[in-house]
Write a structure and sequence with these properties.
single chain; about 475 residues; alpha/beta; OB fold (Dihydrolipoamide Acetyltransferase, E2P); six-stranded parallel β-sheet; 13 helices
Length: about 475
Amino acid sequence: MQTKTTVISPEELHRQAEFCGEIREYWADRGIVPKAFVDTYGCQQNEADSERIRGMLVEAGYGLTDTEEGADVIVLNTCAIREHAEQRVFGNVGALVHTKRRHSGQKIFLCGCMMGQPAVSERIRHSYPHVDGVFSTHHLWEFPELLLRVLKTGKRVFAVEDSAGSIAEGIPVARTNSLKAWVSVMYGCNNFCSYCIVPYVRGRERSRQPEDVLKECRELIAAGYKEITLLGQNVNSYGRDLGLGVDFADLMAAVAEIPGEFRLRFMTSHPRDASHKLFDTIAKYPKICKQFHLPFQSGNDRVLKTMNRHYDSAQYLSLVEYGRSVMPDLVLTSDVIVGFPGETEEEFEDTVRLIEKVRYDALFTFIFSPRGGTPAAKMDDPFTKADKNRRFDRLLEVQNRISEEKHRAYIGKTVRVLVDGRDGDQLTSRTDGGRLVRFSGDDSLIGRFLDVKITDCTTWSLVGEYCGQQ
């Protein structure tokens, strides 16, 4: 595995811009305004990557469409975290045979984390001949060059060479949301949790320069964005590779000091690197949302050690205790894996006990999915799928009860929300802690920060009344 980060030079990125110009000329010579469809699977980092893919396509003269049918280029940005996501991609890629048959000039590209796995790219090469191009996350910045090559030669391209990863500043961005923006502050991961494929497909940790992050955030705030989420596989490691003495807490503080009306969020944190300084920074700045997504994965110390998580349950609970000591209203969310290889019934009950002790506002829960190439995929596992499904259902029952109890405590309170859209006859909004609030109102309220009084709740959302109407 390569370990040295590549910084893409301005000259290289200028070349990619020139390739975009050549693509525009290619279509102009044919009197066509081409259409592009980009579909995203997986995490927020993939969403941020797709915004850059769309940006390059717009720069190359493409109009964006929301359907595969009739698109001149299709890009599927894939996820490798769980088997279900991979199988869904393969199914959808197979179905594109029919759209390409109806539009013979259509070009199909696959990118993202799945394409960083050699076995996957080889499967595409041999079993999906209608796919024109494949590139891993390390080659995203080269997409214009790859697309132009396919257009001009009609030959397939595969850019999947092993790489530690790259930093490429200045790629054009076409954002799909005018209120909320993703801002990647770092890429890759050095943790090598035994179940996780991310370090193998996204490379080692590499941080953007603080001034580049701040410049992007200032531009977003000036453009009217109301919420910025700083992204990284482990944001708590930000800056270690730069040697500038700037850590993630320092970066967040600098963003929070930018003038303007906006909220600041972040994800994801690794408990091994979550510091008191980080909690103190969140508590200090009103613009930083009092929400912390802190994945614990398991409440059992033997399982945590086998997962290669580098903390135990006592250390995790100590972090939670400190966070709530400086922010009593802190909203805590987390990830948990049920059915890790060899996890016994009693070890699973340790996870349930931790959930009962912490009382999370919400959990993202997953049944273990073996990823080829990771240590966990080779571990013995005597427990059946039925065992794991039963545990999973029990865990959901416990967390859903806690979530509803937490939500009921909001009733009668007035909360500040950012109105972000409409669902049927109700507006949708989010609290500082990320809780979904629905209430009645007209579309003129979308994009505004408002006070809403909570009148009711469900397990997964809150119901309120806009205080301005009272």
